[in-house]
Structure formats: structure tokens, C-alpha cells
Amino acid sequence: xxxxxxxxxxxxxxxxxxxxxxxxxxxxxxxxxxxxxxxxxxxxxxxxxxxxxxxxxxxxxxxxxxxxxxxxxxxxxxxxxxxxxxxxxxxxxxxxxxxxxxxxxxxxxxxxxxxxxxxxxxxxxxxxxxxxxxxxxxxxxxxxxxxxxxxxxxxxxxxxxxxxxxxxxxxxxxxxxxxxxxxxxxxxxxxxxxxxxxxxxxxxxxxxxxxxxxxxxxxxxxxxxxxxxxxxxxxxxxxxxxxxxxxxxxxxxxxxxxxxxxxxxxxxxxxxxxxxxxxxxxxxxxxxxxxxxxxxxxxxxxxxxxxxxxxxxxxxxxxxxxxxxxxxxxxxxxxxxxxxxx
Length: 342
Prior knowledge:
The protein is of the alpha/beta class. It has helices at 39-46, 94-97, 138-157, 173-184, 197-205, 218-225, 241-249, 271-276, 293-301, 319-330; strands at 2-6, 14-17, 27-37, 56-57, 61-69, 81-84, 87-88, 108-109, 121-125, 129-131, 166-169, 190-194, 209-212, 231-236, 251-259, 281-284, 311-315, 337-340. It is 28% helix and 26% strand. The strands form four sheets. Strands 3, 5, 6, 9, 10, 17 and 18 form a seven-stranded mixed beta sheet that branches.
């Protein structure tokens, strides 16, 4: 089968012919219909986050159709439309049994430690595979498995309550989902911070108050819009020290800043004025949980999460096109989300 793979960090991905994987007793083989291209894939290609072993097929946002099942798989059958949770886990350790499988000691993230979805087929344990409702197109089902699912987990971690205000730093794929999910959870005002007018325009269409960080200091703008109070919840979805600092500084008393974006750099915090005196919280968000996927799919099936305008374009299983998309992501381009359709 064909697969687009990372061979060496810092170099373009390459199209390879690789063997078709064979399902074990509890596995399923999925024919990939769509795979989202995430900013994390750009980090992996650049070597900012370790991928092992190499070469590795990237792509961790995947939807498709069941092509083959292992002999012990009963819940799924040939032809089922499915989407994939990003982790292949043991299912039996303490973390898995507690529903915190992102800390499973033997867990493998697809597209990072296990071959991912930039391919014609992908092999996964059946426990990591969810039926995709017919109302949800494959493209949307794929990107939900990272950007939307992580946004939902971030809002859960931040303990968003009905009526609370939210600021989102980054109006890309995660941000557009977070706007809608926050509203579905009963949020009050939602502010979307970005420097890209097209992304801010889409955020406004979803009901957020756009804040262009190119025009003014976003912290000052949020404080003005909230009459000096600040926001109850801030999500940092970019992975820049500056926006992490801004997320913390935008908080109201007892506010919670959930950090989602990936960076290797630290950022300064004034402990007394920005955290202690407010009893504010800074919360780490590690991807998302399999048990959150059914809720996410239900919200999308009921049109409370609309991703029809979030996938800005698609590309084929073509290394050149995928590399060009990763180049644009590294430059924080206009595209919200791009999907591969093998």
C-alpha cells in the first residue's frame, strides 16, 4: 500500500510502498477515507517532538471504513464507517481502567510511535475505534479526532460552567471547535484571539467576539470587553510563550488557564499578581480521552458542532502536497484545517 512517511527529522515527508498490515485477534484494518493534517505533524517533521521508530507514517486524525476484523472483534463489522481515537493502549493498566489512557505506559500514539493515517490503510486495536454516525462526513470525523476532541477535553479540564466567559488564544482548527463546544456547554461570552482576519471572521460566524492581536494588546482588549474583570476560562491553543502569558494575564479572579499548545519554551508568570492573589489556576491539557469521543460525536450529529467550514481544502495521498501544507502550518497560514483523502 502507499503511505507518506517521515524518514528523517528536518526533511520532507516521502511517499513509500509499505506492506499491508495484518490484523491480530483484537485489531481492525481500516481503509482510510480522510486524515487531518495537524500542526503537531509540522512539529514532528521539524524534529521539535520525537517520532520513533523511523521511518514513520504520520497522521493522527483518521476516519475510514472497516476493511478487515480480527477473529475476536464483535462490536465492529466490515463496511462500518469509523473514526479512530489517537492512541493504541493496553486497556488493562490502572490509567486505562480509570479512563486516563493518555498515560498508559505502553500506549502508542498513531502517527508518532505507531504508523498513522497518511496511508491507504491503518491497523488499530478495536477498542480505539468508534462508529462514525452517517450524518458526519469522513473529513469532519477525521479532524474531530484531534482538534475537536482536544478542545472538548480542555474545556472539561478547565471546568467550564454555564454562564462563564471564555477566551480562546488561537482561532485555527482547535479554536473553531472550542467556540462551538463552549457554547454547547452553556458558556457566556466567548472571545477568539488571533492575528489572521480570515480565521477571526469564521470565529465571528460561530458567535465569538473576535479580538485581532495585530490591532491591540489582546489582554487589554479582553479586560475592556469584560469591564476590567477578565475571563473565567482561557484556552491557549497555539503553543507560543507569548500567548500562554496572555492567557494567564486575561484571567478573572478564580480563573483557569488551560494550556494546550505545544512548545519547548518557558514563559514568565508574576506569581502573586497573576496567580496567587487571584487564586487562578494554570492547567496542563494532554490530548483527550476515548470516553469523550461518544459525546463529541453526538454533538456533531446534532449539529451543535459544525465543521463544514473548518476543512478549508483537501489533498491526495501526495507527499509534495502534504509537505506544502505543513510548510503553511509552520507559517501560521490561512488554512484552518486540511485533510488528506487517499
